[in-house]
Structures are given as C-alpha cells and as structure tokens.
Write a sequence for this structure.
C-alpha cells in the first residue's frame, strides 16, 4: 500500500465512475459521446506536436551517440555497423531495431552477488518480452479498432482479425491481442510492485497509465465477450465522430461510454506524461546519430567564441626557464 | 574506515531499499563520503563564481543569496541549449533496465546510485519548476521543492557518477546519465560548488598546459630521465624533440603518464616505438596534456583546455596529431573536438608515414589514437616483436569507458596485445567491450579521501579480474587510460592482490626488438625477464 499507486488507482476508478454515472444517472450522452472525444483528440494532437516541436527547438550541439561495438577503423577491422554506425544507413538500422525489436532491452542482465563473492550478470529477458508483448498487442488492438472509423473495412484489418483469432477459441472468437495486452500490462504492474527497487522509484505517474490501460482493456474484454454490446450502433456513433456528423445511438450501453471515456483520458494525458517516450525514442541523440564525428565536422549553433591560454601567454610565463632548458622559443628574452 | 574493512565485509551489500521515501533520505557527508571542495585560489584564477573556503560537512555552504534563481536559470539555459537534456528529462519511463547496470549501485547498494534515481534527483526539480503537471500536482507527480538539501544531495550523487555511460547502453531510449551529470555539475559550478581534484588540475592545465602543473623545463627533464632508463635497458639512446617546428606529427599524451607508474612505462613504450620506426614527431611542453578535466567541469572549460591542441599543431606546422593512451581524452577528441575547436584546415588527413595507411576515420579531426597507429604498424609487419619477453605475464584487457562507449575502439588494442604477448585472456563478456565496467574513479573522482567509495565503485571491474585471475592465473591488467593506470593498482591491491596494472605500450616496449639494441635482461620496470639473469638493482 503506498500513496503513489493508491492515488493512481483511485484516479482511474474516479474517471470510470464519472463516465458511468454521467451517462447512466445523468444521461450526459452528448458530453461523453461527442464533446469529450473531440476535446481529447485535439489535446492529444496539439499536445503531441507542441511537445515534439519544443524538443526540436533545442539544438543538438554535440554528437554524442553511445557507441556499442567496434568503431569504423582500419579496413581489416570489422565494424559493428548497427550498434556503432558511421553512416545514416547504419543509424536507420540501429533505430529500426531499437523501435521495432527493443534491441537495448534485449541486452538486459540482472546483477547479483553470489556466494564466494562472485558477481553474476545473467540475461534477464522477461522485461523485453513483456515490453514487446505489451506494445505489439496494443498496436494490434488499435489497428483492429480502426474498423470503427473506416467504411468499408480495409482488407488488412480483416486479415489482422483472422490472424488474431487464429486459434478460433470461443464465440465471439477470442482475439489474442486483447488477452496478451491485458496479461502484459498486468505483468508490468506486478513487476513494479514486487521488485523492491522498482517500487522504490515508481511514481503515481508510473501506475496511472498501467491502471488506465488495464481498465480500458478490461472494459473492452467485458464488452466483447460478456455484455456483447451493440457494435452496429457503436460504429454508427464512431463514423459520426470521424465524419464530423456526430450522432448518439440510443441502444448503446453505458459501459461503451465508460470505455470511450477512459480512452479519451489516456489520449488527453499522453502529451503531458512519460508516454511521450514514443516520440522521444526517435529523437534521442545517443541513438539517432552516427559516430562519424572524427570524419565530418558538425556545427554547434551556439559554439562560443574561442578563448584560451595561448602559447604566447604560456611562453611569456616560462620563457627564461625554457631558454635555460634548451627549449626553442618564439621570442628571445 | 577502509583500513578496517576487509573485502569480505565490503562485499556485504544490502540491496534492499530503505523504508523511507527517497525524497526524505538526506545525503551523507560524514568523513570519507565526499571529495574535498575546490580551493578559492583555483576558482579565482579561472574566474569561476563564489570562491571561498567551505566544507560539505558543515551546515552552511556559503552559497550566494540568489542561489535558487541561479539554479533555475541554469537549468532553463541548458534545456534551451541541449536537446538531449530535454528529452532525457521527459522520456524516462522508470522501467528499471538501467538500475543495476551502474558500478556505484552494485558496489554501494545505495538506491540513489541507480541511474534512474540519480536522474530523478534532477528531474524532480525540473518537474516542479518547468512542467504543468509538476507545478499543479507537486509530489504526487514526482516533483519536489528546490531546497538547500537538494543542492547538497546533487553534490553528493553527481560526484558519485563517473560519466561512464554504461547505463545508456541498456536504456531503451539511450538516456545518458553522463549527460545529466554534466548538466548538474555545470549548474553546481554556477554556485561555486565543485571539487579540488578537478579544479586544481583544470587551473594547472590552463597555465602550464597539463593537469599536473609540470613546467616546461621539468617536462623535458622527466622525458630525458625516461630516455636514460631506456638506454640502460635497451642500449638505444633516444633524443626526443620538444616544441619542434616542422615535425610531421605532434604527439600528445596524458601527463599522468609522465608522472606516475605504471603509466611511465607506457610512456617509455611510446618513445621506443617512435624511435624504432623513425617517426618524425615532436612532443610539446605547451600541449603536454591529452586529458581534459574540462569535460568534468563545463562545456566551455572543455573547449578552452582543448583549444591548445590545434593551436600548437598550427604553430608547429605539423601534418597531424597522434594521441596517447588516455580515456576521457578520446571522448573529447572523438565527439567534441572538431565541433568545438575545428576546422583543422592547417593539417592533413592523417597518413602513417611508415605504412602509407590513410586514417579516413580521422579525416576531419586529424587525430589518430596510438592503438590504431600501432595496430596498423603490426598488421603491415613493420615491428620486430618478441612476445616471449612478456611470457611471465598472463594479461587481460580492461576496456576503458570512454574509448569503449564514446568511440568504440575495442579491437585495435586487442590486436596489439595479441601480438606482443602470448598469454591473453578476456574477462567475462558482460564486463567488457561496450559493457565494460568503470574503474570507479573516473571523471575526477580519483582522490584519496573517498577511497572507500572508489573501491566500491570499482568492485564490478575488480570482480571480473578476480574471475580470470582465479581461472587462468591472470596477473596483469592492461588498459588504455591514464586514470585507470593510476587507480586500478589500489583497486587490485584491495580486491585481487597479485594482479598488476599496465598500459598497452609498456607491453609493446617490452616486446619490441629495436635496431642496435643490447640483449634485454630486464623489462621496462627493471624487473628480470624470465629465465634471464640481470642486473636489476639500480
């Protein structure tokens, strides 16, 4: 029980209840079904762009890639072109592997002092697996949900649904991405509270998105497999939103509004939170630069004027002693 | 303190975080826990703010009245100047991948030495002063008010980071605590909070051209003593030139190697190598420092101290610069030099006069690392070597942090080692190359008063050496950094007695069969060579 995770849990609960009672009791369907989504998406887009532009406004004065692996050197020495790239192509590859396969997490080890005083560094890949599972299942879920905003539904989404429901479990067919998403988020949360160091460093802002996404996934799973909500009615509403002719369909259950509200909360929260790492990963100067700084001159836009202790001043200080020691001098004494 | 604690006791490290929230745990300034503050005279000489006598152990640090404003403006200025700073403040998701990657965390168990939390020390202030969520929600958003205790905590923990960049290897976004530490140290400078062991070398380097304050006549003398020793050992008399105009190459190496062993033996190795190949080079008493403690101070100071290299190369009219074995020197040269002080149009793309190899990877900066240079020589069979002279040594190689993670010079030194000694064993994979562990005393922390911290910081490195010492009988630790050469000996004496420390070129010097040399009976340390009787008392 700590204040950070309690605050996050309570916040998400309050948001859910707000939407539930707002619609169920107070009938504010237009607020939760039209106004909030438009506001949330606007905040997301504007906020995201502003944050990225704010980062871009600051220059990169020095090229500081973290070099992993052998540098470009003599022709017979094999360079690690992905982890220590010296060309743009190499950087693109490095970034590709980082963003698509979370390459850095694949190196993760766990340090432990064993008996006899040996420190071991065993590979610890659970974090990598959970992170990949979480992000990819989330991507799959989002792409599948695009069927609500596109008519006719593109073939690639139908294909994804077929792949997602490959094992044809249950009816409606269980979409693996939803299950994996929920499981992965749950693991990430449990990890945060059971590893003592993780719990020590975690803020409310670390638990909040986890609870929020769990609630979103949870309500989604409930809607599809338990409540079996009116997807036709829902699509009418979502198409209305996307064509800027919003409509409220009476038969759509309250739980749909709750799910939608939680998604809107996530969208509105995104630009002000650590979730901006989504953009940050592309712009990090320790990853997206080539290690070519001995080969090509990079300009620092605020490079200050050169001011240093010149040889002339040095010789002025030491001339006599230098002459005595037989060192060459510019000016005789 | 350290004298009383045995290695077994020091290994008992409690990794359980304290019960109290980290924001409520004050920094520890008991004796031995902090490096001595800078002396007023160094700061006055450099024109740095707030020179005064003070001690971190005292309550009053005598900061300027408007210290809060200075700090906030300092953060704002650096956010505007460095995109890295902004992104590193905003992108951390507290995944914890970095947490147990830092040698100081492994060695102390102090959670604020986890890179993630070290960054939070600064990030929590950033949130409170610069972000909407932080300003509105305060502590629950991970923000905290800027108090004097925060400044004290910054001093404690940003001088427990050696800017080795190991954490940034494991972070999914490459968040580099070294960069954050540099920002924090720059901000602390603005208040006059800095340490003697950095500011003294910095002011020496400005005045005499090297961190140790060696004056030109003494520098010449020291090198001449080396040449006397070399003559005794090899029979070859070397006459190096100093400040000589028109030489082809300017050689710049860390002053630590002119001053203390075992670095001095590597210096001897350089001199012997250059003599053997007939390199047309000169040393310089003005540019007598490869290192740059400005890197640990501020970007302005780094630029200022680095400027003399190009200035001297231009004055002497050399074609290119050869650099010696120094760690942080090469991060500065590789990543910062041409941007700060270039372009070096008065020099040419380096070409080895012996092999004809063009060092294209140094085409702009015009500086070649001596390991690159020597590896090239060996590949082209330009050196006569007798590795059996190093047979009594079972060598392992420590990748110094900055050449590894700020450059990627990993295979060149290994190639040299494999050709100058017959017994070479690598330490475990997770402790070498880009995963290499810092010596524990980098970035200006190689000072006596924090020895316990240094021994703890160096624990992971020492532990890996112990492993190969016990498994293969390794008795010599080689590296390419002058700070390493100064600090690894006490580290080895404590954790792995029986292992000595060397640079790379000492081993080259031992193995080199020079033109006209006498039969070698001792190595460069005047120790008898194996199976040979020799006059080893001098």
């Amino acid at each position: 029980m700590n204040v950070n995770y309690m605050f996050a849990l309570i916040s998400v609960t309050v948001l859910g209840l707000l939407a539930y009672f707002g619609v169920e009791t107070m009938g504010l369907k237009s607020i939760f079904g039209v106004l909030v989504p438009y506001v949330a998406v606007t905040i997301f887009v504007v906020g995201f762009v502003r944050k990225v532009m704010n980062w871009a406004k600051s220059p990169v004065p020095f090229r500081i890639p973290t070099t992993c692996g052998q540098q470009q050197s003599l022709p017979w020495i094999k360079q690690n072109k992905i982890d220590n790239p010296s060309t743009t192509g190499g950087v693109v590859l490095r970034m590709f592997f980082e963003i698509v396969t979370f390459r850095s997490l694949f190196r993760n080890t766990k340090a432990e002092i064993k008996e006899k005083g040996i420190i071991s560094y065993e590979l610890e890949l659970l974090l990598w697996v959970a992170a990949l599972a979480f992000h990819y299942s989330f991507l799959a879920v989002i792409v599948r949900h695009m069927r609500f905003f596109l008519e006719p539904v593109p073939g690639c989404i139908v294909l994804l649904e077929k792949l997602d429901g490959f094992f044809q479990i249950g009816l409606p067919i269980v979409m693996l991405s939803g299950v994996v998403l929920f499981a992965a988020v749950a693991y990430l949360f449990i990890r945060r509270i059971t590893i003592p160091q993780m719990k020590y460093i975690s803020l409310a802002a670390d638990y909040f998105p986890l609870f929020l996404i769990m609630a979103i996934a949870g309500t989604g799973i409930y809607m599809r497999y338990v409540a079996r909500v009116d997807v036709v009615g829902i699509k009418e509403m979502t198409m209305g939103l996307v064509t800027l002719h919003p409509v409220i369909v009476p038969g759509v259950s309250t739980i749909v509004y709750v799910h939608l509200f939680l998604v809107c909360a996530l969208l509105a929260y995104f630009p002000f939170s650590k979730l901006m790492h989504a953009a940050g990963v592309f712009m990090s100067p320790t990853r997206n630069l080539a290690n070519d700084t001995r080969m090509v001159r990079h300009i620092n836009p605020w490079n200050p004027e050169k001011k240093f202790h010149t040889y002339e001043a040095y010789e002025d200080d030491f001339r006599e002693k230098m002459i005595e020691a037989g060192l060459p001098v510019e000016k005789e004494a | 303190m350290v004298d009383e604690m045995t290695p077994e006791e020091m290994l008992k490290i409690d990794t359980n975080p304290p019960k109290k929230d980290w924001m409520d745990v004050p920094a520890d300034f008991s004796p031995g826990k902090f490096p001595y503050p800078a002396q007023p005279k160094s700061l006055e000489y450099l024109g740095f703010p707030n020179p005064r006598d003070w001690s971190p152990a005292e309550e009053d640090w005598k900061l300027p009245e408007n210290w809060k404003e200075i700090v906030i403006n300092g953060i704002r200025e650096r956010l505007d100047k460095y995109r890295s700073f902004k992104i590193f403040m905003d992108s951390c998701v507290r995944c914890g991948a970095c947490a147990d990657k830092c040698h100081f965390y492994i060695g102390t168990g102090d959670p604020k030495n986890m890179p993630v939390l070290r960054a939070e020390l600064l990030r929590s202030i950033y949130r409170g002063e610069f972000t909407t969520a932080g300003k509105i929600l305060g502590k629950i958003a991970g923000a905290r008010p800027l108090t004097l205790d925060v400044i004290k905590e910054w001093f404690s923990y940003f001088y427990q980071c050696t800017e080795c960049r190991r954490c940034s290897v494991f972070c999914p976004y490459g968040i580099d605590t070294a960069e954050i530490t540099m920002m924090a140290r720059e901000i602390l400078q603005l208040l006059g909070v800095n340490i003697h062991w950095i500011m003294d070398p910095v002011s020496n380097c400005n005045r005499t051209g090297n961190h140790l304050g060696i004056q030109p006549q003494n520098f010449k003398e020291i090198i001449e003593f080396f040449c006397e020793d070399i003559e005794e050992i090899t029979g070859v008399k070397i006459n190096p030139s100093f400040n000589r105009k028109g030489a082809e190459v300017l050689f710049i190496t860390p002053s630590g190697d002119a001053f203390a062993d075992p670095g001095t033996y590597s210096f001897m190795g350089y001199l012997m190598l250059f003599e053997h190949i007939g390199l047309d080079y000169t040393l310089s008493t003005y540019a007598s420092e490869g290192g740059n403690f400005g890197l640990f101070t501020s970007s302005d100071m780094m630029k200022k101290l680095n400027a003399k290299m190009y200035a001297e190369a231009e004055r002497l009219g050399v074609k290119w610069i050869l650099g010696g074995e120094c760690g942080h020197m090469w991060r500065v040269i590789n990543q910062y030099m041409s941007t700060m002080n270039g372009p070096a149009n008065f020099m040419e793309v380096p070409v080895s006069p012996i092999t004809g190899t063009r060092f294209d990877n140094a085409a702009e900066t015009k500086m070649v690392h001596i390991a690159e240079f020597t590896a090239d020589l060996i590949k082209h069979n330009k050196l006569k070597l007798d590795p059996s002279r190093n047979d009594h040594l079972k060598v392992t190689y420590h990748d110094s942090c900055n050449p590894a993670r700020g450059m990627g010079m990993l295979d060149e030194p290994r190639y040299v080692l494999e050709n100058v000694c017959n017994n070479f064993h690598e330490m475990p994979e997770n402790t070498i190359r880009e995963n290499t562990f810092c010596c524990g005393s980098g970035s200006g922390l190689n000072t006596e008063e924090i020895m316990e911290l240094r021994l703890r910081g160096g624990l992971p490195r020492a532990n890996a050496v112990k492993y190969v010492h016990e498994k293969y009988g390794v008795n010599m630790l080689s590296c390419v950094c002058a700070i390493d050469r100064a600090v690894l000996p006490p580290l080895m004496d404590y954790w792995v007695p029986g292992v000595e420390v060397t640079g790379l070129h000492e081993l080259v010097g031992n193995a080199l069969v020079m033109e006209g040399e006498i039969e070698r009976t001792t190595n460069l340390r005047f120790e008898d060579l194996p199976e040979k009787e020799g006059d080893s008392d001098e």
Observations:
- Chain A has a mean pLDDT of 95.
- The CA atoms of residues 22 and 52 of chain A lie 34 Å apart.
